[in-house]
Write a structure and sequence with these properties.
Layout lengths: L1 E4 L1 H15 L3 H16 L10 H10 L9 E6 L2 E5 L5 H19 L1 E9 L6 H9 L3 E6 L5 E2 L6 E3 L4 E5 L6 E5 L6 H9 L9 E2 L5 E2 L2 H7 L1 E2 L5 H18 L4 H7 L7 E8 L7 H16 L17 H11 L1 E4 H11 L13 H10 L1
Parallel strand pairs: 3-4
Antiparallel strand pairs: 1-14, 2-3, 4-13, 5-8, 5-13, 6-7, 8-9, 10-11, 10-12
Helix pairs in contact: 1-2, 1-3, 1-12, 4-5, 6-7
Length: 361
Amino acid sequence: MSIRIPYDTVFSTVKQAFLQMGLSEEQAQQCAGIHTESSLEGIESHGLNRVPRFAEYVQKGWVDLNARPELVGAKGAVENYDGHLGIGVLNATFCMDRAIALAKEHGIGCVALKNTTHWMRGGSYAWQAAQAGFIGISWTNTESCMPMWGSKEPGVGNNPFCIAIPRKNGPIVLDMAMSQYAYGKLGVYRLAGKQLPFPGGFDKDGNLTSDPGAIEASGRILPTGYWKGSGMAIALDLAAAAMANGRTGADLDREARGSCTGCCQIFLAYDPYLFGDEESIQARWDDRVAAADATAPDREGGHVTCPGERTAATRARNMAEGIVVDEQIWQQILDLAAGKTDVKDISSACVLDNMTEEKKQ
């Protein structure tokens, strides 16, 4: 069951939960901001729902609260950092800041990060670039949680990819996993007792299904675009590992420590006005978005939008009416804020963690 909680209450409670986990005042402030903003904008699967799992990983020692990104190499507009298994949100924010700084100097900036932890909502860092006036691109590799096309067992990560266009009349921001639905989104639908809008994977008997629990149980999420999604996933994995000189998804599988622990991430920022003036490029973007949005909807009363356009409306509604939170998740966050530490994340049924445990045995 979902409830609505005022923004300030959510932020202060999440921040207190992070302080109880041992984060500093500054760390807790920044992490609470990312998690709360994600849920405020309708991405609860990677916002508040991830707080209990983060607590679990801290308890297991899979996240080092004292670690900071270390520069290990730099060539022109490119830098490489070792995240030392620090807080993924903070590592990612730092690296996109560095990419933006490099882009201000060179026109384009690229930062590769290895040995980091889950960045939560990947789109946060694309938005970060767009809000600074730059085109932002970022992606991550993960452990295997999705079958390659033609397989019945996980063989590649769903490796989220994000791109943001800094349009002044509303940024266009794409944040997508290489699976039809990320596991976090499956958890959101399962907790709400809902079926997926479209088939998102296979059940244990190999039947395509919209039942999120059945897909979590089988571990057979559907690649976006079938073979295209799994093909993109393996390509993104290889590119990230090479650029960061870090682990591939197969390395993460062998280490078997849980979602994204030790992964590689890439952050790109690009000045959109290198070869054109701001006014004409913004006008061109507005014209293109307007043309796409004006196409005929597929059903009566439907409305076509480009990715990111509905974010402002979602944010405004949730700010006015309260952030949507699953009641069970909220209770776990309240327990964490009160100093109770024996809390397990129920938001994703932890198919990935279950597979990890099986590999250890």
